[in-house]
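Good morning,

Attaching, inline, the backbone tokens for the sequence recovery test we're adding to the shared suite. The designed sequence is right after.
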């Protein structure tokens, strides 16, 4: 079925609405600064940070491998998109309530409940993302995609930058746990408003790939990898460069360990991270059509190597502001490059499947934070940083083999 122009326009603004309010919510539930800092203030250790990071980043992506076969069997996927975002909304609500009353809860029970709610929040995001990727690809006509990505980058950039100041101020209004309770409740409200964009979407183009259980799914993966060599190198890239977005939570722990980071310092780190991501997004939106994904991937890898080197050689509050600025750039480059390359190596009918397969590429990013938390707990930060740089260095081979020049 051909997508009518009127529906494409409606979906354009619906998706933009969601992106704008999601950007506002992100600073209040930031997975690199706010959530790990909250865990440390709750009494969490390096091992706890490792588990939390594995759940939020690598682990949530890995579960897409299991969600995709189920979702692929349905021609229309909006209902799954709504289920995923609704679970995230309620997880934030209960997390805010939990922290508000946390003085009445024993330490171990509080940390356990935080893990449970963060797991629901992360898995809900992974479940909805499988559907979102498919719906995004078929809900906008081809000529509207690049303008949408450019406008979305500008809108989210402005909102992210503006809300970062509000988040920093709100974080400093009270001590733990009330400051984080306020943060998550604001995030709950913003994400609830963002979900209205999904409710307004009209999904009219069917997309379906029959997958008869896990065995059949892995047979399909073997066929796809055999027929599409780019997919194999893409998985290698995600498995190596993917750990770059798991680093900042440990930098937060390193900062709190090294110079007793306070909530206002966490807010400043968040602001610098947002600045890096926003500047990168706006710059790439201006240069849309003039850069190649290949270049973005190489720059991403080079910057990822700089962060642990600076952290080791220049541990101080000023240099850590730079680290979070670079971290924002890395996150933006990785997200844009990952999504762009995924769209290039996949097609309309198999996009949901490829999103799930890409989740398989998150095996190492899911396990590395667990290993990192254990290494830091046993041997300190230096071995962890060295191993990080070794893994990142291997990603350059997969970037070279991908050779994505579009």
């Amino acid at each position: 079925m051909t997508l009518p122009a009127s529906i494409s326009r409606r979906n354009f603004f619906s998706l933009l609405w969601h992106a704008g309010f999601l950007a506002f919510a992100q600073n209040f539930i930031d997975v690199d600064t706010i959530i790990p800092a909250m865990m440390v203030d709750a009494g969490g250790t390096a091992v706890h940070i490792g588990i939390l990071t594995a759940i939020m980043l690598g682990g949530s992506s890995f579960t897409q491998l299991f969600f995709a076969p189920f979702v692929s069997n349905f021609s229309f996927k909006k209902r799954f998109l709504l289920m995923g975002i609704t679970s995230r909304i309620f997880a934030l609500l209960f997390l805010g309530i939990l922290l508000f009353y946390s003085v009445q809860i024993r330490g171990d029970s509080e940390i356990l409940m935080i893990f449970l709610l963060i797991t629901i929040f992360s898995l809900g995001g992974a479940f909805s993302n499988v559907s979102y990727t498919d719906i995004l690809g078929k809900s906008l006509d081809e000529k509207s995609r690049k303008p949408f990505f450019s406008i979305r980058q500008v809108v989210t950039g402005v909102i992210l930058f503006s809300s970062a100041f509000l988040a920093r101020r709100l974080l400093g209004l009270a001590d733990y746990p009330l400051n984080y309770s306020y943060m998550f409740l604001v995030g709950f409200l913003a994400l609830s408003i963002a979900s209205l964009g999904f409710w307004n979407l009209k999904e009219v183009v069917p997309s379906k790939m029959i997958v008869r259980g896990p065995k059949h799914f892995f047979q399909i993966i073997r066929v796809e990898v055999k027929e599409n060599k780019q997919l194999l190198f893409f998985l290698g890239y995600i498995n190596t460069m993917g750990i770059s977005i798991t680093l900042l939570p440990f930098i937060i722990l390193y900062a709190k360990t090294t110079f007793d980071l306070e909530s206002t310092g966490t807010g400043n780190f968040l602001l610098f991270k947002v600045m890096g991501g926003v500047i990168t997004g706006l710059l790439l939106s201006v240069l849309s059509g003039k850069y190649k994904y290949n270049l973005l991937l190489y720059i991403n890898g080079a910057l990822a190597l700089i962060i642990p080197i600076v952290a080791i050689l220049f541990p101080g509050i000023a240099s850590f502001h730079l680290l979070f600025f670079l971290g924002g750039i890395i996150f933006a480059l990785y997200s844009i490059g990952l999504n762009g390359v995924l769209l290039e190596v996949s097609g309309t009918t198999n996009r949901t499947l490829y999103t799930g397969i890409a989740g398989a590429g998150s095996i190492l990013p899911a396990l590395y934070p667990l290993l990192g938390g254990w290494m830091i707990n046993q041997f300190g930060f230096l071995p962890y940083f060295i191993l990080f740089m070794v893994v990142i260095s291997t990603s350059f081979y997969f970037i070279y083999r991908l050779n994505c020049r579009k």
